[in-house]
Amino acid sequence: MRAITHAAVNIVLLEYCQENSLAHSGFIVLDSPLLAYFKPEGDDDIALSNSDLKELFYDYLIKHHKSDSQIIIIENQHPPANVEDQISMTIFTSNPNEGRFGLL
Fold this sequence. Notes:
Blueprint: H1 2-19, E1 27-31, H2 35-38, H3 43-49, H4 53-64, E2 70-74
Parallel strand pairs: 1-2
């Protein structure tokens, strides 16, 4: 649950700064924000893993941050199929013959 909470705080900070004309780059990098969603660590995480959090998370970002900010999500799991055509996604395959091999 820590990962999604950390992501939410970063997103809310971005929104607060934008709404109050405060300095913010409009750029956020989230590393595995849905980690607890896939690997429950406690009772709260188990309840969360049975929810539609993943879909709601991506839907929220698309609805509220499509044009005024850039949010990069580094995740080991693919986003929900219903949002893949609405986002820009790069898959690193570690295979030189398929997709993009790596970041560098």
